[in-house]
Amino acid sequence: MIASLRGTVLSIGLNSAVIECAGVGYVVTATPQTLATLRRGEESLVLTTMVVREDAMNLYGFTDDASREMFSLLQTVSGLGPRLALAAQSVMNPAELSNAIAGGDAKLLQRIPGVGKRMAERMIVDLKDKVIAFTTSGQSFADAPSGTALPHPGVAVDQVTEALVGLGFPERSATAAVTAVLSATPELDTSATLRAALAYLGKK
């Protein structure tokens, strides 16, 4: 099990980064909030969880223990895999997820792409008594780092839309969110546009 990586950030995309450790480059999938803390060419420490499947081994990265633990806890729910767990943390931080689950707020949980009424109710039933430790931890989405971590300046609308679709949002909704965000704040860079679009979709 690879619990963490400390090394030079070789590249950063909208949903993953490559970190070189002892000459080996590791691909780490993470939320936009986590990727925004990285800087290409600089050394970084990323906490990780390895998910092993029959056809793949994937590393998922986090900035803190609470996010990593929530990622693992979410996957104890039947039918909720790593992709959906990561999508959940792209929309809400551990404290917000915990409050929604503990409070039985199924409608709020349904803002997560891929989470319908049944899954939201299942999350509440399965996790309500397990999320108390997260209610006062985590960083709010509004407080997420604002610095860009992407290798190319400017906004790549198709790239941001594709990243949102990859997180589980319908393409039509993703396109509308990116358009709305850029119409309101056209000076945003790519990373900031993605974070703003996630916030926009989370309010829908």
From TrEMBL:
Molecular function per GO: ATP binding; four-way junction DNA binding; four-way junction helicase activity
A biological process from GO: DNA recombination
Keyword entries, A-Z: Cytoplasm, DNA damage, DNA recombination, DNA repair, DNA-binding
Primary location: cytoplasm
Subunit structure comment from the entry: Homotetramer. Forms an RuvA(8)-RuvB(12)-Holliday junction (HJ) complex. HJ DNA is sandwiched between 2 RuvA tetramers; dsDNA enters through RuvA and exits via RuvB. An RuvB hexamer assembles on each DNA strand where it exits the tetramer. Each RuvB hexamer is contacted by two RuvA subunits (via domain III) on 2 adjacent RuvB subunits; this complex drives branch migration. In the full resolvosome a probable DNA-RuvA(4)-RuvB(12)-RuvC(2) complex forms which resolves the HJ.
Role description: The RuvA-RuvB-RuvC complex processes Holliday junction (HJ) DNA during genetic recombination and DNA repair, while the RuvA-RuvB complex plays an important role in the rescue of blocked DNA replication forks via replication fork reversal (RFR). RuvA specifically binds to HJ cruciform DNA, conferring on it an open structure. The RuvB hexamer acts as an ATP-dependent pump, pulling dsDNA into and through the RuvAB complex. HJ branch migration allows RuvC to scan DNA until it finds its consensus sequence, where it cleaves and resolves the cruciform DNA.
UniProt name for this protein: Holliday junction branch migration complex subunit RuvA
Organism: Corynebacterium canis
Encoding gene per record: ruvA
